[in-house]
């Protein structure tokens, strides 16, 4: 048996997030176009006496280390399915913003699952891994798959999408987090008394991705959760405006927020937008990253 396995997992931005009405189970049907971007968490699992989670990185103090952490849950679910004890130390080197709408928690779930599968030699099929990911959370299957994909259902049913080029992004981290359930509740509240259409993927957006055309993508992006995120976090409007004024092709809230995402035409322009945003005082930190990026990948196996 190997002594430790490390898996690298990307963040995501939603280039389209179409949200339907609340379902009886409380979830919302989505047309969710995910693009993985090159900001990564690295999840390392090592045999231990009992399950333990540790985390390092600038936002590490905001990460729960108990069994609510999706990385811990992933180890527990896989172990239960195989009649094993989840006796591992899961260490997360965190670079993805926490509670930011960039699937950082989902990334750790997918990473721990792939790492435990390799560590324990459980040989789970891709289908079983995706099934466990969907059990862990709506965005977790995409963290495993990476690239670009259309998520339907609650976001967990994936169709892989073609991407014809590299898209350059700037991300602005906010001074505090936003809770995803709270943003969906605000979406419901804002939509009360209106008819909410079925969520459908935008064909111009899928075409823009397939062509690798940043101008066409900028014209087609949309996020139905953005009004709800702005309602709960009005200062984000200032960050979006600062990025647009800095020359971004488009600006939007990433998923349920509060991270905001800015599409740039090329790496030079992304660096300029990043610098201006950083100086604007409208956000806590700024990062650049391009996508698509690969999904969860084993990057190290160290021998026993
Ligand atoms: O699936 P996940 O645990 O990531 O979802 C977190 C929360 O986000 C859910 O409890 C629900 O409130 C909301 N959600 C939703 N519809 C979705 C996905 C998430 O309402 N399709």
UniProtKB/TrEMBL annotation:
<protein>
    <recommendedName>
        <fullName>4-diphosphocytidyl-2-C-methyl-D-erythritol kinase</fullName>
        <ecNumber>2.7.1.148</ecNumber>
    </recommendedName>
</protein>
<dbReference type="Pfam" id="PF08544">
    <property type="entry name" value="GHMP_kinases_C"/>
</dbReference>
<keyword id="KW-0067">ATP-binding</keyword>
<comment type="function">
    <text>Catalyzes the phosphorylation of the position 2 hydroxy group of 4-diphosphocytidyl-2C-methyl-D-erythritol.</text>
</comment>
<dbReference type="InterPro" id="IPR006204">
    <property type="entry name" value="GHMP_kinase_N_dom"/>
</dbReference>
<dbReference type="GO" id="GO:0005524">
    <property type="term" value="F:ATP binding"/>
</dbReference>
<feature type="active site">
    <location>
        <position position="12"/>
    </location>
</feature>
<dbReference type="GO" id="GO:0019288">
    <property type="term" value="P:isopentenyl diphosphate biosynthetic process, methylerythritol 4-phosphate pathway"/>
</dbReference>
<feature type="domain" description="GHMP kinase C-terminal">
    <location>
        <begin position="206"/>
        <end position="280"/>
    </location>
</feature>
<dbReference type="GO" id="GO:0050515">
    <property type="term" value="F:4-(cytidine 5'-diphospho)-2-C-methyl-D-erythritol kinase activity"/>
</dbReference>
<feature type="domain" description="GHMP kinase N-terminal">
    <location>
        <begin position="69"/>
        <end position="147"/>
    </location>
</feature>
<dbReference type="Pfam" id="PF00288">
    <property type="entry name" value="GHMP_kinases_N"/>
</dbReference>
<comment type="pathway">
    <text>Isoprenoid biosynthesis; isopentenyl diphosphate biosynthesis via DXP pathway; isopentenyl diphosphate from 1-deoxy-D-xylulose 5-phosphate: step 3/6.</text>
</comment>
<keyword id="KW-0418">Kinase</keyword>
<comment type="similarity">
    <text>Belongs to the GHMP kinase family. IspE subfamily.</text>
</comment>
<dbReference type="GO" id="GO:0016114">
    <property type="term" value="P:terpenoid biosynthetic process"/>
</dbReference>
<dbReference type="InterPro" id="IPR036554">
    <property type="entry name" value="GHMP_kinase_C_sf"/>
</dbReference>
<feature type="binding site">
    <location>
        <begin position="97"/>
        <end position="107"/>
    </location>
    <ligand>
        <name>ATP</name>
    </ligand>
</feature>
<keyword id="KW-0414">Isoprene biosynthesis</keyword>
<dbReference type="InterPro" id="IPR004424">
    <property type="entry name" value="IspE"/>
</dbReference>
<feature type="active site">
    <location>
        <position position="139"/>
    </location>
</feature>
<keyword id="KW-0808">Transferase</keyword>
<dbReference type="InterPro" id="IPR014721">
    <property type="entry name" value="Ribsml_uS5_D2-typ_fold_subgr"/>
</dbReference>
<dbReference type="InterPro" id="IPR020568">
    <property type="entry name" value="Ribosomal_Su5_D2-typ_SF"/>
</dbReference>
<dbReference type="InterPro" id="IPR013750">
    <property type="entry name" value="GHMP_kinase_C_dom"/>
</dbReference>
<keyword id="KW-0547">Nucleotide-binding</keyword>
